[in-house]
């Protein structure tokens, strides 16, 4: 029987607990396909799982990483709509197909509870894959949209849709934020990006960000955002900080604006117990986002394919233990802008 290299993590050892194993290459069942993985993309989630700081359930010895792009190499006899040679990507949660997030979807998040994609081959249900269009994008760029693409799409279009002319605030320059910048620009929104680094802000400008604010040199960054918007505030905030940033988000959101609560990068304690009162005073919608459904990922792929959009990939590492550990540590360091990938080719 042929074998493949699979990486699993011993959680008590943190990122250094990622180790290689040789395991059988599985075969596709009647409703499944075998996928040869060409690229995987990291999310902050993968770092949080590896360092035991993730806010949702995890499983020891799991295969890390949810996001991959690959090529179908074997098709089960009852599979419809996928053929050998098709490019595919999965949503983060196999059972979250469409509509709102439901109780129980946590049980099969790839790379946290269910085995993820840090391996050469994976068998998946054909219904849990999105077929890629012919395009100039490579496997790394498609892997980069699985989690962050569907999450940002859910934030912008899963409830009240983003409109041309809206102003969007994107916190930081990581994967979620830079994906948000690409989508918000394509939607005709005015964009404001915050970052700890002027160099990263210059990169965001090169991607088309209309305004930038350094939150280190402007610790009261909400004041800057209000100045930029002539005191009106922004219509939509991609909230990546969480507890440590939401107070200022509430300061610079416009009346009836939307805060998409996505990240937990800044878990600073609440400074004042009444900090949520502005949410009431301004009739703000604070909407928790749990990734995106397979249907939303399909919409992302169609949109990106038709509009020729790509999410920036900062760096691509190799598929060996040393490089994989380095890739995780690079994302943990926060030095990246946009996405970080691991290539298996
Ligand atoms: N709810 C969901 O479904 C969902 C889906 C995807 C991601 N997430 C979460 O969203 C967050 C972002 O994920 P990611 O993959 O984009 O992470 P990432 O690529 O690792 O981005 C990290 C970047 O965020 C910025 N940042 C850190 N602290 C900040 C703060 N206090 N204010 C503003 N920016 C800050 C930094 O950028 P600068 O150096 O430019 O400041 C940092 O480099 C994470 O907490 C992740 O777990 C949630």
Automatic annotation (TrEMBL):
Classification via SUPFAM superfamilies: GroES-like, NAD(P)-binding Rossmann-fold domains
Where does the source fall among the domains of life? Eukaryota
Enoyl reductase (ER) domain segment(s): 14-342
Task: Please give the Gene Ontology molecular function terms for this protein.
Answer: oxidoreductase activity
State the PANTHER family in the record.
PTHR45033, ZINC-TYPE ALCOHOL DEHYDROGENASE-LIKE PROTEIN C1773.06C
Q: What is this protein called?
A: Putative zinc-containing alcohol dehydrogenase
């Amino acid at each position: 029987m042929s074998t493949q290299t699979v990486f699993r993590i011993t959680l008590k050892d943190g990122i250094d607990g990622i180790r290689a194993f040789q395991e059988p290459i599985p075969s596709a069942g009647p409703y499944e396909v075998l996928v040869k993985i060409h690229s995987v993309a990291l999310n902050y989630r993968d770092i949080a799982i590896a360092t035991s700081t993730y806010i949702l359930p995890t499983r020891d010895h799991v295969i890390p990483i949810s996001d991959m792009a690959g090529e179908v190499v074997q098709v089960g006899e009852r599979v419809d709509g996928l053929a050998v040679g098709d490019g595919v990507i999965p949503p983060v949660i196999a059972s979250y197909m469409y509509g709102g997030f439901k109780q129980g979807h946590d049980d099969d998040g790839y790379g946290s509870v269910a085995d993820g994609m840090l391996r050469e081959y994976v068998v998946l249900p054909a219904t849990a894959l999105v077929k890629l269009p012919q395009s100039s994008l490579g496997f790394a760029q498609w892997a980069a949209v699985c989690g962050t693409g569907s999450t940002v799409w859910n934030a912008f279009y899963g409830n009240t849709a983003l409109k041309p002319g809206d102003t969007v605030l994107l916190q930081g320059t990581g994967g979620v934020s830079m994906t948000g910048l690409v989508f918000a620009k394509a939607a005709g929104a005015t964009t404001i990006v915050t970052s700890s680094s002027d160099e990263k802000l210059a990169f965001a400008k090169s991607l088309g960000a209309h305004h930038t604010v350094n939150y280190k040199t402007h610790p009261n960054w909400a004041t800057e955002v209000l100045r930029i918007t002539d005191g009106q505030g922004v219509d939509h905030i991609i909230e990546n900080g969480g507890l440590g940033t939401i107070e200022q988000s509430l300061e610079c959101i416009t009346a009836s604006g939307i805060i998409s609560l996505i990240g937990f990068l800044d878990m600073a304690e609440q400074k004042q117990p009444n900090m949520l009162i502005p949410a009431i005073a301004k009739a703000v919608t604070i909407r928790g986002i749990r990734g995106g459904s397979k249907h939303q990922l399909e919409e992302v792929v169609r949109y990106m394919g038709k509009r020729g959009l790509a999410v920036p990939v900062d760096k691509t590492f190799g598929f060996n233990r040393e490089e994989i550990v380095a890739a995780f540590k690079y994302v943990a360091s926060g030095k990246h802008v946009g996405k970080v990938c691991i290539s298996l080719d």
